[in-house]
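Fill in residues.
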């Protein structure tokens, strides 16, 4: 039996910690050791992820220890060794020796002919290749080529001159790049140049027609993506499609350069996910990186140096499950050379628009879609911003803010203390001008900060917290005494810290209430084996935040769990919950969200507290809360009362 008293203390008595910082890497590039992950139970297979063709350009961060880490971790859990490929030199067949699957995430630098040959040869000899593209004009490094064009082998409106409009230096960087209908010729598919949004790919072929890839798959998300055309049904087949009835007005990506929707969705729009058989090997394709990525980017933007923001797509819908299924299929060698030798139904050739043919294509808008920042050269990593992949300069140290608050802020008007800690300062450095307030949903200020002379302000709102001075280790800490407007009756609010310029540094959801109640009387707990969830017995109104504590025991001391996910859902499966992000913001969708890292203490117990909220439109009185470790691995499910 767990020590429930200890758990209650963790949830409702102990100080609540929240942190916000910029999580970026030190200077790192192709010459540095690439990450490699080893499973605890190796299945004998190895997967290699390409990071040599601009996979970290712009807002992309498609690396296995960055925004593709959920995908990588899921493969490691399946028993795969997962590695990243880094190189200044072109990809060769030798680079792929010993690997079973080669994943190409949204390339931004075109493949040379020798590289195309190496990839095709790898597949012919039994390897699996996974092509991850995006929508047309997703040109993240502003070199006039997007991933769809690169995968296909030719640039829209520039088939006869792949370096059209480029400088001499840019053209030299693309030496060895030649236009061809490479992807279609080698794998029987072509990425279309459409750009679709505001829908979900829910037309899924049966598992008997997909070699088992679509087992238990109902829908795959798309957030501004493209589809493919089947050009040779003997070797290529669609397995996931968008619904029919799509329209330009409703489903065109807002920045599309053309009509965006080519055939109204469905089969004629072409598959969103497809597979291919190439002699002894295989290939798979998806028209959007959003279902693959997660919200943990590693690097700063190579052009601007800004922090990236990526989408938490891997855990949405059935994305993670189908991606793992694809890798499992790609990694399994089979004896047939084409789909004509199997029992599956062959597709028809996807009708193409005239403008999709290389000889008829045009550059609809001038490229690139905007001019790069002065000094940034996509082909010269010495011009990349500090903290980006390829730069030799580490990013400047960023202040880290940690706020300690009581688990419940007293709304009776009595004072309470919060403690602010700031790290990464220079020894003895002082900072001032920081302001803090507690406010209700909608923005109403409800807090006052006690003045240094013991008096209180006459109004509620942002107030200066005074000067913080770092110790010899560069850490500054200050206790701040606050009181709330005693007329407040709300049970949830937010506390926010701003700098002298007015920029938000820290936002955290907090609980308001009476202090001193017996915490054990106010909690409900659910237990299943080594897993335990605790949350308030009475949940606040939908839309208001509340704490949930997750405890996992029976672990080795220091062990970490990184794939825990939680959600609240209605009968029938509709997701209705969100988890607050580390920066105090909230996601834009409802569903499963990662809990981050749980680390076991010396006794083998890992705890994590998160803030959750329910979709404010929900009127149901009952739901379920579920904890899972990765897609499909449910470990605790319990019914809860909503209101």
């Amino acid at each position: 039996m767990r020590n429930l008293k200890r758990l209650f203390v963790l949830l409702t008595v102990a100080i609540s910690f929240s942190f916000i910082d910029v999580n970026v890497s030190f200077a790192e590039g192709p010459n540095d050791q690439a990450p490699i992950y080893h499973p605890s139970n190796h299945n004998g297979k190895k997967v290699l992820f390409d990071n040599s063709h601009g996979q970290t350009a712009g807002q992309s961060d498609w690396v296995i220890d960055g925004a593709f880490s959920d995908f990588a971790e899921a493969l490691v859990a399946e028993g795969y060794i997962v590695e990243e490929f880094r190189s200044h030199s072109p990809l060769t067949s030798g680079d792929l020796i010993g690997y079973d699957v080669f994943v190409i995430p949204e390339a931004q630098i075109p493949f040379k002919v020798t590289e195309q040959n190496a990839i095709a040869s790898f597949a012919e000899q039994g390897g699996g290749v996974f092509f991850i593209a995006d929508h047309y004009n997703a040109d993240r490094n502003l070199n006039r080529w997007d991933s769809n064009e690169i995968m296909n082998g030719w640039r829209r409106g520039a088939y006869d001159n792949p370096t059209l409009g480029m400088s001499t230096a840019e053209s030299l960087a693309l030496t060895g790049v030649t236009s061809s209908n490479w992807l279609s010729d080698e794998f029987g598919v072509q990425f279309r140049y459409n750009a679709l949004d505001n829908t979900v790919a829910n037309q899924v072929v049966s598992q008997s027609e997909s070699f088992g890839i679509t087992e238990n798959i109902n829908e795959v998300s798309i957030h501004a993506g493209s589809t493919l055309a089947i050009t040779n049904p003997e070797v290529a087949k669609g397995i996931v499609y968008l619904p029919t009835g799509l329209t330009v007005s409703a489903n065109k990506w807002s920045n599309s350069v053309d009509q965006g929707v080519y055939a109204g969705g469905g089969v004629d729009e072409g598959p969103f996910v497809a597979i291919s058989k190439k002699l002894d090997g295989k290939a798979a394709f998806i028209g959007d990186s959003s279902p693959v990525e997660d919200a943990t980017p590693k690097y700063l933007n190579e052009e601007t140096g800004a922090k990236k923001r990526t989408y938490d797509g891997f855990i949405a819908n059935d994305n993670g499950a189908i991606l793992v299924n694809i890798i499992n299929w790609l990694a399994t060698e089979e004896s047939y050379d084409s789909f004509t030798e199997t029992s599956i139904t062959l597709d028809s050739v996807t009708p193409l628009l005239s403008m999709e043919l290389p000889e008829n294509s045009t550059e609809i808008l001038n490229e690139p879609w905007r001019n790069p920042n002065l000094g940034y050269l996509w082909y010269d990593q010495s011009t990349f911003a500090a903290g980006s992949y390829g730069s030799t300069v580490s990013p400047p140290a960023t202040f880290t803010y940690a706020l300690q608050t009581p688990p419940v802020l007293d709304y009776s008007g009595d004072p309470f203390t919060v403690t602010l800690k700031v790290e990464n300062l220079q020894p003895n450095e002082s900072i001032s001008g920081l302001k803090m307030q507690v406010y209700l949903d909608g923005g109403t200020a409800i807090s006052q900060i006690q003045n240094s002379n013991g008096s209180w302000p006459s109004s509620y709102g942002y107030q200066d917290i005074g000067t913080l001075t770092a110790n010899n280790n560069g850490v500054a800490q200050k206790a701040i005494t606050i009181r709330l407007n005693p007329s407040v009756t709300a049970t949830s609010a937010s506390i926010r810290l701003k700098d002298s310029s007015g920029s938000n540094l820290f936002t955290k959801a907090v609980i308001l209430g009476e202090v001193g109640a017996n915490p054990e009387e106010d909690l409900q707990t659910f237990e299943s084996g080594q897993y335990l969830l605790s949350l308030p017995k009475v949940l606040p109104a939908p839309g208001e935040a509340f704490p949930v504590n997750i405890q996992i025991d029976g672990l080795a001391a220091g062990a970490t769990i990184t794939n825990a996910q939680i959600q609240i859902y209605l009968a029938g499966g509709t997701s209705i919950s969100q988890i607050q992000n580390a920066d105090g913001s909230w996601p834009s969708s409802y569903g499963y969200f990662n809990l981050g890292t749980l680390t076991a203490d010396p006794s083998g117990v890992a705890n994590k507290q998160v803030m959750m909220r329910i979709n404010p439109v929900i009127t149901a009185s009952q739901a379920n809360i579920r904890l899972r470790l990765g897609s499909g691995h449910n470990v605790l499910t319990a019914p809860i009362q909503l209101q």
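The chain is about 10% helix and 25% strand.
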